[in-house]
Amino acid sequence: MTDDPERTRRWTLALGVDEDAVELSEPDRRMAAALSALYDDDEKKGKGSLGGSAPRVAKWLGDIREFFPTPVVQVIQKDAFERKGLRQMLLEPELLATIEADVNLVADLVSMRSVMPEKTKETARIVIRKVVAELMERLERRTAEAIRGALDRSRRTNRPRFADIDWPRTIRANLRHYQAEQRTIVPETLIGFMRQQRRIADLDEVVLCVDQSGSMATSVVYASIFAAVMASLPVVSTRLVCFDTAIVDLTEDLADPVDVLFGIQLGGGTDINRAVAYCADKIERPSKTHLILISDMYEGGDAHDLVTRIARLVAIGVNVIVLLALTDTGRPSYDPALSGRVAALGVPVFACTPDQFPELMATALRRDDVHSWAADRDIKLIRADAG
């Protein structure tokens, strides 16, 4: 192939060329075997197989974590679940504890919890709680700051919150306190921004109505975490309603997002109209309510009645927003015809990422133009003539 040994090595690992034909180090042989076990046909002579043994799979998971960074490990795990039928292996707690956890794994565990033995459920809770804690750390402060109010940068204070410290001005004001031996500045005086409190407390009802059909699994996980964050804020009242053909109101469980996730039943059909009707019955102050419908809009119920119901909510002053997906990619699979009919009502219909969601909620709570907000960020809005 080439006289360059390194290039030969890379091609061998990338293409799965018979490692006996070239010299490979022991780590490279293990890496090749780990990849061959998944991506080569089991019948190939000399190639590995994941088989059905939990110890063998656990060793394989350990190998791929040793050789590849976390994002690659998560992709390989996902391929293993789909190509080798390893989803059932997650029922074994010893194996589950070795998995590299991410939001997609959480969705898998939530969907499987009804068939898990109790011992495995305990391990699954530990795994889910770890992922939820990481996501909360990533998203909680941004969500709270966006909803509580924007910074008023025209006014200063010497008692700012940590997130509001103006570091350039603070450093300049404390240069005389520079400690040469420690090579640091002692900030005796803090300078920061004062907050301009928005009257979003007057617009305080947020209803997250979330489609829990199988295709929306990742969106459900993120929506549940955001609902738990918002429920902890005194400036808004948050309700979480999940649905397929049945409806589950998880509002009372929002103090613990893990409990929320274990209350979700992923899969099944979809009756969006019934879920929106349930949410509409809970609305007492339409002009102060924001209904965020998170669904791919593949309706198994009465689509005509759904459009009529949403039109009625808009007419009485409810701020309705439809998110086709709440995922890291922000690329939805959705019903363009029904989405277009809802967009024709003036309702913003689009997908967004978890990192965009806090700013979206702040925009909605201020009753700013969500269409303009999305367009300014190159987010694809569904047109009224879609489909």
- Estimated radius of gyration: 25 Å
The largest sheet has its strands arranged as 7-6-5-8-9-10
Q: Helix/strand-derived class?
A: alpha/beta
The percent of residues in helical segments reads 40-55%
What is the helix/strand order?
A: HHHHHHHEHEEEEHEEHHEHEHEHH
Beta strand count: 10
List keywords for this structure.
387 residues; globular; six-stranded mixed beta sheet; two-stranded antiparallel ribbon; 15 helices; 10 strands; alpha/beta
Strand-helix topology:
Layout: H1 5-15, H2 26-39, H3 54-67, H4 70-84, H5 93-96, H6 103-112, H7 118-148, E1 151-157, H8 167-173, E2 178-179, E3 184-185, E4 192-195, E5 205-211, H9 217-231, E6 237-243, E7 247-249, H10 257-262, H11 272-282, E8 289-294, H12 303-315, E9 319-326, H13 336-343, E10 349-352, H14 357-365, H15 370-376
Parallel strand pairs: 5-6, 5-8, 8-9, 9-10
Antiparallel strand pairs: 1-4, 2-3, 6-7
Helix pairs in contact: 2-3, 6-7, 6-9, 7-9, 7-14, 11-12
What does this molecule look like?
The chain has 387 residues and is of the alpha/beta class. 45% of the residues lie in helices and 13% in strands. It is built from 15 helices and 10 strands. The strands form 3 sheets. It has a 6-stranded mixed β-sheet with strand order 7-6-5-8-9-10, sandwiched between helices. α2 (26-39) crosses α3 and α6 (103-112) crosses α9.
In short:
This protein is of the alpha/beta class and 387 residues long. It has helices at residues 5-15, 26-39, 54-67, 70-84, 93-96, 103-112, 118-148, 167-173, 217-231, 257-262, 272-282, 303-315, 336-343, 357-365, 370-376, and strands at 151-157, 178-179, 184-185, 192-195, 205-211, 237-243, 247-249, 289-294, 319-326, 349-352.
